[in-house]
Design a protein that fits this description.
By secondary structure, the protein is an alpha/beta fold. The chain has one domain: Alpha-Beta Barrel (TIM Barrel), CATH 3.20.20. It has nine helices and ten strands. The strands form three sheets. It has a five-stranded parallel β-sheet, with helices on both faces. Strands 1-2-3 form a three-stranded parallel β-sheet. A two-stranded antiparallel sheet has the order 9-10. α8 packs across α9. The longest helix has 17 residues. The protein is globular, with a radius of gyration of 17 Å. The two termini are 22 Å apart.
Length: 242
Amino acid sequence: MIDTHCHIDLYKSPLEIIKECENAGIITIGMTNLPSHFEMGYPHVLPFKKVRLALGMHPLYAKFHAKEFNGFIQNLTRTSYIGEIGLDFSREGISTKEIQLDYFKRILKELSGKKKILSLHSRRAEKEVLQLLIDFKIKNAIFHWYSGPLSVIDKIVENGYFLSVNTEMIKSDNGKKIVQRIPLNNILTETDGPFIEINGTPVKPINITDIINYLATEHNTSFEKIEKQVEINFMHLLDSLK
């Protein structure tokens, strides 16, 4: 199984999560919200085979972007994974819109032409994120927890990008419509743990089984076929790094 978006460093016991992923054979990409967070977590993740750490500049941390940007540049060679990055024009993030745009463009300029896999935040800014990926010729990107218009999903897919699905998305009617719109060839799985809870407990990578079961039912196929398809999709991204 594969968890393409999990904030391992924000669990009460990150090492416990890492060991659980390693023992269960779950490929897990740990997001970070700032380069300084990446630097703190990197040595702890390095000994493990199944867990990798992504270098992030979360849009809701925009007030730190000026201070942290040099750290982003300096750490680029240490990982193939970039995340969480993107834009947030919701009520929570709209006040820093211009800072977000400035630094997201700077980040994409640095990443253009480099072999990296991006995990993207795009709340209320789906069209803007997509257009900037195209403008900067970014090849490998995953729209994490997509919540925008259904029509934009088609354009994301047309441009060869992926979308990752979590347990929260398969609870609501709107989330289900979004999941149904994503072709199986473009779908990946994520938890966004520990921000999502199941029965009052933070979701963990092992709960990816819930998403695969849901997709198997929706597509009238087996758990194993969905699991294999997600693996094929992720390997397609990995092959692009070679």
